Amino acid sequence: MERVAPAEHQIPAIADKVAVMDERIEALKDRLEGKAICQAVLDVYGIDYCVVPVLHKEVAPLVKGIPDPSIAAIDLYLQQCTEPLDGPVIRKMMNQLFGTNLEGIAALSRTRISLFTKGQWIAKKDKDLFAIHTGREDIDVKVIPTAYFAEQTGSDSLPEPLASRLSALGYRFNEAIGAYYYSNPEGVSVPDAFKGKTIGSINEVTDRYFSHI
Known about the structure:
Elements: H1 17-28, H2 34-45, H3 60-63, H4 69-80, H5 87-98, H6 102-107, E1 113-117, E2 120-123, E3 130-134, E4 140-145, H7 147-153, H8 160-169, E5 172-174, E6 179-183, H9 192-209
Parallel strand pairs: 1-3
Antiparallel strand pairs: 1-2, 3-4, 4-6, 5-6
Helix pairs in contact: 1-2, 2-4, 8-9
C-alpha cells in the first residue's frame, strides 16, 4: 500500500473518532473500497495500515505476497459482505481482518492508558499512567508503567494491586523485558475479551489508588 499522510485537518480527539468515522463512511457511500477505507481510518485514528498485518485466517493466505495486502484484504471482504456498509460494519470488518478494535481504541480516551500495537502508538496521552504493548500479531501483551507514573510516584514498577490483578489473568513478570507479560498459548491473537479484562483491571487500580495524580 502506498504510504499516505493524514488529511490536512487535525486528527479528531479520541472521544470523537467513532462519530467522525461514521460521517466519513457515510460520505464515501458507493465509493467504499480498500484504499478509501484505509485513508479514512488513517485520517480519523492515525492508524497506518501499511504496517498492520492481515490476521484473518482465511483471508491472510489469499493476499500473502501480493502488493498492498491490506487493501486487497478489505476489497475481498467487501465483495463478500452482504450487510449494508456503514461505520459499525466497517469497524467490525477491520477488527476481523486486522485485530484492531476501533471502538475499543476510541474508548481509551476515558482511561489513563496508552496503547502501542501493530508497530505504532494508537493511543497516547501525556498523563497516562500505564501502557499496554502488544506484539505485531497480538499474540503477546505486556503492561508497563509510563514515565509519568514513575515521575509522580517515584517507582518504575507496576503497583502491587495491579500486578496481582494481572497475575490472576495469566500475566507473569518477565525479568528479561522487565514487564508483566502474557503470551497466548494457542499461538493466535489474544481475544477482545482478554484485552477488555486487562484494561478493566488497569482502570480499577487507577480509579482506586491513583486518581489523584
